[in-house]
Design goal:
870 residues, alpha/beta, MutS, DNA mismatch repair protein, domain I, Nucleotidyltransferase, domain 5, MutS, DNA mismatch repair protein, Chain A, domain 3, 6 domains, 31 helices
Length: 870
């Protein structure tokens, strides 16, 4: 059966199946004439993703196979949709001209596009990196590498599994590769959160990775990149280079260096903190992340760099202050800030443009864009030179004007060059003498033919003479029968018509040859000159990448300056002390999303390791405890990114780790309850403390019973206070006001509450932090504000008053047993004639809408009815 089936395959399907077998797991786009076709399961998948017609075609003598395709010129429209749907797409092109081949055309895969490896602008997001990540697990540690093929950034690191998970969450790779043997560990860490692909185990070895990297960078060792001893990271990075080869990405000159992500240089933000603080992504689909508020960058490179700064805040005081001082310098010189910003607006994506040069994928219009972008560097340098502030010296040193490249592109390439290099008309006149001659010949043909016609008409006296062209004879002279006796002898007859004769001449044949050859020669010369320009540009890969990094940094810092001016932020003081002193701090995101008529209520926070290590903050729900915790962390992180902060004053003792446990986040899909997630995150905090940690805990213990919760929260505060090695600065928000007792035994614990006002049995949120603990949680009032039915609110208040009457004298169980039965169970009155009257009054009341005054009047009326009973 198998043999019969094999023999029934058409030559085309036989070729298709052979190529498909070499790329398992990839969707194969198979070029047939002017179309890219997909077959079988690929066709079914493609038709659904692309919403194109699914048909069937004969696959030999008896069988049929599914078929779906689209025109080859639509590749840029359809490819991104396939890749974004998570597919690896192998593009199989015709490797020879079908016209010159008898039989089957030679075909081969020219590129395998995966979600993590793409140079296509329609696949890539302009303001985000498109990282491929590679992970390698050891018994206890993990190596990780990130590559953005579109920019050439190649990063490597290693550390604990938690550390690598945190990097993955911060960098948000589009695809992750790992060893087939580690599938179970990978799925335990990441589940189905990322598109992934596993490779054979042999690829993940120290020797193979080391050899791959040293060969790629043409070095004897990796000491120059600071990763020589980073064994797990080297293995992960080597696998990335293997994957590049496997996916037919062979032009990789733009991947010129390997950068180490040093865990010691950056603030530790665990994966929970990145999520809880909503740095990059909001927790709600309609929410706002910190990046959305802070990103006023003008260039794609600047926007991408800002994301890295956000997930990798600095710990080095000197580096932080350099950024802050640069922001301050821009703020002090308005003209400089505005001029530099104006030039930045005109700069395109230098990183991705020079990567396209390196891979030979840049089109003429993009090369013009590269020229225009580079031409902004000189005026930026000129503006920076005008400043007397030495802070800009580093940027001046790093920016290169690339004069020779600019001159070459400007001299050779037309400013209105088309996107496609094969369209022609890309090289300026005057660049190449032969090209100019051929253009005259090709594009002034009508005038030349008209000249021949006029000359021959005058010479022969044939007034009706005309010159025309067809594909069979080429150019010819047509003479009506009335004048054929005037035709000169040297004319050669080619065709006889009913009313005319057609002739050719030696002059026409020579001209025709020139015309037909000219267009082909123009194309060849233009392609040669264009590729010479691209080749010349490849000599500037490293220089332009350095320009891109410097421009990105300037872009971020000018963005910070505008942000600070617009929102009245202040320059934080960075110190080596173990303290945090924020006066009139504000939440950067909430502040910007408030209605215009409302002002954000600022608050002070002070923490140190001697007098006030832990602030216990009580107060009602909705009063602003969570916002206060988050804004404190965001102010610290913004300061250590090098940005001014939303406060009246901020003195930030360097923080090396920020931990947050805020907000409920069930992970039911993995069998974890709210309480389990809460305890897991809290355990991670307590096991990773340092002396410079900032810990934010919100409502710890609420996922279990009241006394369980109080006990856990109490013991956590004691642990943080009494830790034998570290005095982590802590904000502890809770609705358990019993924790206020801790300040009596723990000297560095201080009580605060978020103020509210009670007015006519209602509460007004003041949102101001004040010293001292709070005695009430006001949860029932919040329920009322949320629109809870009145009868539920009234019943809850009754139960609360009973439980509060004697908190310490009885057990919880006994108190609950004594809770008075619901006031709505009025069976006590069933034997009393006045019961019907009371019931009638109650039935006429809509409890959901009755006002307090009306309720009091009705109660009084019922009281009158029942007066005689007592």
């Amino acid at each position: 059966m198998a043999k019969a089936k094999k023999s029934s395959e058409t030559p085309l399907m036989k070729q298709y199946n052979a190529i498909k077998a070499r790329y398992p797991g990839a969707l194969l786009l198979f070029r047939v004439g002017d179309f890219y076709e997909t077959f079988g399961e690929d066709a079914v998948k493609a038709s659904k993703v692309l919403d194109i017609v699914l048909t069937k075609r004969a696959n030999g003598s008896a069988s049929h196979i599914e078929l779906a395709g689209f025109p080859h010129h639509s590749l840029d429209a359809y490819l991104p949709r396939l890749v974004r749907a998570g597919n690896r797409v192998a593009i199989c092109d015709q490797l020879e001209d079908p016209k010159s081949v008898k039989g089957i055309v030679k075909r081969g895969v020219t590129e395998l596009v995966t979600p993590g490896l793409s140079m296509n602008d329609n696949v890539l997001e302009q303001r985000r990196n498109n990282f491929l990540a590679s992970i390698h697990y050891d018994e206890k540690a993990c190596g990780v590498s990130f590559l953005d093929l579109s920019t050439g950034e190649f990063l490597v690191s290693e550390g604990s599994v938690d550390y690598v998970e945190k990097l993955i969450q911060g960098f948000q790779p589009s695809e992750i590769i790992y060893s087939k043997a580690e599938k179970a560990r990978f799925e335990k860490s990441f589940g189905a959160n990322y598109i992934n692909f596993h490779l054979e185990d042999w690829i993940f070895s120290t020797e193979y990775g080391y050899e791959k990297l040293t060969r790629h960078f043409s070095t004897n060792n990796l000491k120059g990149y600071g990763v020589e001893e980073m064994k797990l990271g080297i293995i992960a990075a080597g696998a990335v280079l293997f994957y590049l080869e496997e996916t037919e990405h062979k032009e990789v000159k733009h991947i010129g260096q390997l950068s180490r992500i040093d865990e010691q240089q950056y603030v530790w933000l665990d994966k929970f903190t990145i999520r809880n603080l909503e740095l990059i992504h909001p927790s709600q689909s309609d929410g706002t992340a910190l990046i959305d508020i802070m990103d006023s960058t003008q260039t794609p490179m600047g926007s991408r760099l800002l994301r890295k700064w956000m997930v990798l805040p600095l710990k080095n005081k000197e580096q932080i202050e350099r950024r802050l001082n640069t922001v301050e310098a821009f703020m002090e010189e308005d003209d400089l800030l505005n001029e530099v910003n104006a030039y930045l607006k005109q700069i395109g994506d230098l990183e991705r443009l020079i990567s396209k040069v390196a891979t030979g994928r840049i089109n003429p219009r993009e090369l013009v864009q590269l020229k225009k972008s580079l031409s902004q560097i000189k005026p930026i340098k000129d503006e920076l030179k005008k400043s007397s502030n030495p802070i800009f010296a580093q940027h001046l040193d790093q920016l290169n004007e690339c004069e020779a490249l600019l001159s070459n592109i400007d001299a050779g390439l037309k400013d209105d060059a088309p996107i496609n290099a094969t369209q022609g008309n890309i090289i300026k006149d005057g660049v190449n003498e032969e090209l100019d001659e051929l253009r005259k010949l090709a594009f002034s043909g009508k005038d030349y033919l008209k000249g021949i016609q006029e000359r021959e008409t005058e010479r022969t006296g044939i007034s009706s003479l005309k010159i025309a062209y067809n594909k069979v004879f080429g150019y010819y002279l047509e003479v009506t029968n009335a004048h054929k006796d005037k035709v000169p002898q040297e004319w050669i007859r080619k065709q006889t018509l009913v009313n005319a004769e057609r002739y050719i001449t030696e002059e026409l044949k020579v001209y025709e040859e020139k015309i037909l050859n000219a267009e082909g020669q123009i194309f060849v010369i233009e392609q040669k000159l264009y590729m010479e320009l691209v080749s010349f540009a490849t000599e500037y890969i490293e220089t332009i990448q350095q320009n891109a990094r410097s421009i990105a940094s300037l872009d971020c810092l000018t963005s910070f300056a505008y942000l600070a001016k617009r929102n009245s932020y202040v320059k934080p003081i960075i110190t080596d002390e173990y303290l945090l002193d924020i006066k009139e701090g504000r939440h950067p995101v909430i502040e910007q999303n408030m209605p215009p008529e409302e002002d954000y209520i600022p608050n002070d926070v002070y923490l140190d390791d001697e007098s006030q290590q832990i602030m216990i903050i009580t107060g009602p729900n909705m009063a602003g405890k969570s916002a206060l915790l988050r804004q404190t962390a965001l102010i610290v992180l913004m300061a250590q990114m090098g940005c001014f902060v939303p406060a009246g004053y901020a003195r930030v003792g360097l923080v090396d780790k920020v931990f947050t446990r805020v907000g409920a986040s069930d992970n039911l899909s993995r069998g974890e309850s709210t309480f389990m997630v809460e305890m897991t995150e809290t355990a991670s905090i307590l096991n990773n403390l340092s002396n410079r940690s900032l810990v934010l805990m919100d409502e710890i213990g609420r996922g279990t019973s009241t006394y369980d919760g109080i006990s856990i929260a109490w013991s956590i505060v004691e642990y943080l206070h009494n830790h034998e090695s570290y005095k982590a600065k802590t904000l502890f928000a809770t609705h358990y006001h019993e924790l206020n007792e801790l300040t009596n035994d723990l000297p560095r614990v201080k009580n605060f509450n978020v103020a509210v006002k009670e007015l006519e049995n209602k509460i007004i949120f003041i949102r101001k932090l004040q010293a001292g603990g709070s005695e009430h949680s006001f949860g029932i009032h919040v329920a009322q504000l949320a629109g809870m039915p009145n009868q539920v609110v009234i019943r809850a208040n009754t139960i609360l008053k009973h439980l509060e009457a004697d908190k310490l004298s009885e057990s919880d169980k006994e108190k609950l047993a004594e809770v008075p039965s619901s006031q709505f169970q009025l069976n006590l009155f069933e034997s009393d004639p006045r019961f019907e009257q009371v019931m009638k009054l109650l039935r006429g009341i809509d409890i959901n809408t009755i006002s307090p005054v009306e309720a009091l009047l009705k109660v009084n009326e019922m009281k009158e009815v029942l007066k005689g009973k007592s």
